[in-house]
Amino acid sequence: MKGHKTVLTVELKLSGNGTQLRLTHAGFPDENWRDQHEQSGR
């Protein structure tokens, strides 16, 4: 789906002496697109 936009959210949280990072990637048009993206990131 050319031109489809997704949203990547970055959350930082203090954790002890460091920082916890949480990335959330949302807005995929369907589960198939999401799953293909997940597999390509490995």
UniProtKB/TrEMBL annotation:
SUPFAM superfamilies: Bet v1-like. This is Uncharacterized protein. Residues 23-42 are annotated as: Disordered. Residues 31-42 have a biased composition (Basic and acidic residues). It comes from Paenibacillus brasilensis. It comes from the Bacteria. InterPro entries: START-like_dom_sf (IPR023393).
